[in-house]
From TrEMBL, chain A:
InterPro entries: Aromatic_CoA_ox/epox (IPR052703), Ferritin-like (IPR012347), Ferritin-like_SF (IPR009078), PaaA_PaaC (IPR007814), PaaC (IPR011882). Pfam families: PaaA_PaaC. NCBIfam families: PA_CoA_Oxy3 (TIGR02158). One of its GO terms (cellular component) is cytosol. GO terms for biological process: phenylacetate catabolic process. This is Ring-1,2-phenylacetyl-CoA epoxidase subunit PaaC. It comes from the Bacteria. Gene3D superfamilies: 1.20.1260.10.
UniProtKB/TrEMBL annotation, chain B:
This is Ring-1,2-phenylacetyl-CoA epoxidase subunit PaaA. GO terms for molecular function: phenylacetyl-CoA 1,2-epoxidase activity. It comes from Sulfitobacter marinus. GO terms for cellular component: cytosol. It holds the Pfam family PaaA_PaaC. The lineage of its organism: Bacteria, Pseudomonadati, Pseudomonadota, Alphaproteobacteria, Rhodobacterales. NCBIfam families: PA_CoA_Oxy1. One of its GO terms (biological process) is phenylacetate catabolic process.
Amino acid sequence: MSDNLFEFLCRMGDNTLVLGHRVSEWCGHAPVLEEDIALANTALDLIGQTTLWLDLAGEVEGAGRDADKLAFHRDVWGFRNLLLVEQPNGDFGQTMMRQFLFDAWHLSQLNALMDSSNTQIAAIAEKSAKEVTYHLERATETVIGLGDGTEESHNRMQAALDKLWPYVGEMFTLDDVDAAMVDAGIAPDPASLRPAYDALLDDVFAAATLTKPQDDFGHQGGKSGKRHSEHLGHMLAQMQWLQRAYPDATW
Amino acid sequence: MYAQMIKSTGEGVKSLDEMEPQERAFQERINAGGKIEPKDWMPDGYRKNLIRQIGQHAHSEIVGQLPEGNWITRAPTLERKAILLAKVQDEAGHGLYLYCAAETLGVTRDQLTRDLLSGKMKYSSIFNYPTLTWADMGAVGWLVDGAAIMNQVPLQRTSYGPYARAMVRICKEESFHQRQGYDIMMKMAKGTKAQKKMAQDALNRFWGPALMMFGPSDENSVHSAQSMAWKIKMNSNDELRQKFVDECVPQAEYLGLTVPDPDLKWNEERGHYDFTQPDWDEFFDVLRGNGPCNKERLAARNKAWDDGAWVRDGLMAHAAKKRAAKLAAE
């Protein structure tokens, strides 16, 4: 049980870590000052959530690893984040579409986790949900605004959706870790979140004049850690370089 | 000190007797410690000078995101990463307040942005230096934000209301920035041999550029005299630089680091440290565009602006559609 719980907590924490890192790559390069502020704010929230999830993961594991140790001293195969969040930023539209597709899942996951049988998880979920409510609100407005903006912005948003759609399915698949979480009343069955997710996307894409791709094929391998994309290794090379170059240092 | 070499009218300071009644009333209000507000009458020179000064300060906050953003993705711990993100977010926020303050003087943020991107308006010379190790995040917070605070604390009492009020908020955040910088330096200076070496190296590289932030001596400058009469500049550059040195030297000693100035010594008679002036030739080179990172910094800002054009256009087009739909429904 504790192995499965550790895996589950790494999934939550690695999603926020990897996405937080990706979003932080924008710093100083956003299309407008308000977006620079909002992106930094989102990244900051996600990194804060990472600390909570991964500290708890380390505690559950009981091997003396804390959030920093987990974040900066695991290799690609140790990561349990969804493939969606490790995808490169692309243009601003791709970044915001990725954010929207993730936030829509993330918020309903957190809402469900607020009823978790594990009180620590419920507490983290409650704190995170407040922040993610705002993330989803902002991502939704941006997807609608750019989808229903100019011809160019519409085309770019549609291209972003088409590109990222194959990474949506992974959020809703059930594996042994998820099944153990469901049995223990810790987390919801991922598939149970899908109908509300689809309904939200239908509404938002209608307002954004975007077309949801027909093909529901979904890449797998992120949350199980079995096959990440090539992008993650490059991200870690940057993110973990300092800690690995100077392993004796405290910062 | 994110505004350097701001030129005023250059005509020298008029006495009250030489002024027309309107200008005299304006100057008397400033002399009495009153605030000038956006709708009040003000001399053209005052307005232009303030636009340049506030604009340059705002641009510095914006460009200043880049050298620190350079380390956000390589921060050593989750906590350091979060703190640095919060700091850079604050800086973007400072840019926002300052652009708003400048807008009250009748210039738009877009116009100021265009002038930054074309190179017509400047930003502080300090942001044209590279950040090479994690210790640079410490040195930037400690020295660069420290130097900025020297200038900005008095500017909370500046004569132009919106600028003074923006500065009150900015100063609160800047002092947190400086403390976090010094905290990084403490960790580094008390850390492993390699960390201590990084800390000393960062101090060596940032000391001179930090002293340059105050600008060359302006004791005899008519521009400065006018700005001081208008209370949009509160102290001379040399005064502030001295204050900065006096404050930093004991801080460096506490860290066990050496200030890279062999002639630095306490002058009992003056009650201040004697120190070597920074390399002013280098300063003017940087101002002319020949600093180590001038081209990269401006190119990064231009790229962000150009790449973001479709986003701004898209969001504007959507807002216009929404407005039109709302009107049609009424």
